[in-house]
From TrEMBL:
The lineage of its organism: Bacteria, Bacillati, Bacillota, Clostridia, Eubacteriales. It comes from the Bacteria. GO terms for molecular function: DNA binding. This is DNA-binding transcriptional repressor AcrR. Residues 31-50 bind DNA. Pfam families: TetR_N. Keywords: DNA-binding. Residues 8-68 form the HTH tetR-type domain. InterPro entries: Homeodomain-like_sf, HTH_TetR. The keyword Zinc does not apply. It comes from Oxobacter pfennigii.
Length: 219
């Protein structure tokens, strides 16, 4: 019988149960009742710990992002034990691996898309619209248009649309490189700096293996 419980262990059980349900069923198809049943707690325990469904999603997403980054840093330290890579390089590798996970695991991508679009979309709305207005003025071919749109509204795409258009084929590395070039150029970095950054992160990333299971700790 489910009971009302407080404490760190209960919070962890709720988060772990919700994470597995969000991944397997999708956010839209997951309810408080299902999470409570899987965690063997009362619904009121979920509300006590997370206040709202949105907060629960966001906390899971933040923990997963932090865990993924730590996992990648650990793997980099194993492959490059004497490394002194700048934080920008480490972030670049993490971003590249994230894109690979999005392309390889549709359910993983769906979870991040749902959290972004349902919880974080409003806070990013003004920035997105400013970028959209700016890029609309450019004369873009189809491939460039798809790449720009992947920056402007990245989580409104389904996985096949995001990485593989029927007319223009894209892969996660190509999308990642475009995003990195766009961001670093916006920050005022030179073309030489950008090329070296992409070359370095590509080389390091190729030596790092990460899967959905060890990234999300679904066991």
């Amino acid at each position: 019988m489910a009971t009302y419980r407080t404490g760190i262990e209960t919070k962890f059980k709720i988060e772990n149960a919700a994470k597995k349900l969000f991944y397997s069923k999708g956010v839209e198809s997951t309810t408080y009742a299902q999470i409570a049943k899987k965690a063997n707690v009362d619904i009121s325990s979920i509300v006590y710990h997370f206040k709202s469904f949105d907060n629960l999603m966001l906390e899971i997403k933040n923990h997963l992002s932090k865990d993924r980054k730590l996992l990648i840093k650990e793997k980099i330290n194993i492959q490059y034990p004497n490394n002194n890579f700048a934080e920008m390089i480490l972030n670049g590798v993490e971003y590249r691996k994230k894109m690979e996970l999005y392309a390889a695991y549709p359910k993983y991508y769906r979870f991040y898309r749902d959290v972004y679009y349902k919880v974080q979309h409003k806070s990013a709305e003004s920035l997105i619209m400013n970028m959209y207005d700016k890029e609309l003025s450019l004369n873009l071919d189809l491939k460039q248009k798809i790449l720009y749109e992947s920056i402007i509204t990245p989580f409104q795409f389904t996985v096949p649309d995001f990485f593989f258009s029927e007319k223009v084929q894209l892969n996660p590395h190509e999308v990642c490189d475009f995003h990195v070039r766009y961001i670093l150029k916006t920050l005022g970095q030179t073309e030489d700096f950008i090329n070296k950054h992409i070359q370095t992160t590509t080389e390091i990333s190729s030596n790092i293996e990460i899967t959905c299971d060890n990234s999300m700790n679904l066991s």
